Amino acid sequence: MTRILTALFTMIAMPALAHPGHIGEIAGHNHWLAGAAIGAAIAIAIWGAIKGKKEEVEEAELEEEIEAEPQEA
Hints:
Order of helices and strands: HH
Distance between the termini: 80 Å
Strand content: under 5%
C-alpha cells in the first residue's frame, strides 16, 4: 500500500505557483512588504538586463574599432 501511495503522489505532484493576486485582499496585513519586494526584484532584473545590453554593445564597438585599424608589421 505504501508503494502504491508513493507512486500515486509522485505522479500527481505539481510545483507550487505563487502569484501576487491576493495582495489587495490582505492589505491590512504586512503582506504589502512582499509586494514591494517583488516589485524591487523586477526592477533590479530589468536594470541588469538593460545594463548588460549596453556593455555588449560597447564591447562590439571596441572590437570593430580594433579590427578597422591597420596593423603594422
